[in-house]
Amino acid sequence: MSTDLKQEFWTRLADVRAGMLDTGQGRFVPMSPYAEADESAIWFITAKGTDLVDAAEAGGDATLMISDPKADLYAQVEGRIALVDDSEKLDEIWNGVAAAWFEDGREDDSVRLVKMTPKSAEVWATKGSAGFLYEIAKAHVTHDLPDMGDHGTVTF
């Protein structure tokens, strides 16, 4: 496993297609994160009038929960969110999934771009299902605890 858990987090987050985001309302909603390690940012495309836009306009805090066995990543990410007016960034991350939510696609007046700037994250970068099965079997033979991968807190 990687000794740089922060880099491992960004690498694996790029493969995550959905997470659960809470803007302090105590209500997690599914969102597609778009990771930008170089910017230390996680982007979301949403619509005007959502709780996410309201919280982002106020510059609030948010929690992103990731549980993705395909990316072998589990994380709780804490950070600040802000509404951003950046057409180039929106064009860069726009895709068919986002387009499905808007009647007029990218040109829909309700499209909004939200940037999450992570402050910290508790991260579990696992070895995948084959690695999991191997570690469980090995633990039964050796009576040692299984090595499930890297775990720790990352500060951004």
From TrEMBL:
Can you tell which superkingdom this protein's organism belongs to?
A: Bacteria
Read off the Pfam families from this record.
Pyrid_ox_like
Instruction: Give the General stress protein FMN-binding split barrel domain ranges.
Output: 6-147
InterPro entries, alphabetically? Split_barrel_FMN-bd, Stress-Dev_Protein, YdaG_split_barrel_FMN-bd
**Protein known as:** Pyridoxamine 5'-phosphate oxidase family protein
Look up and give the organism this protein is from: Litorisediminicola beolgyonensis
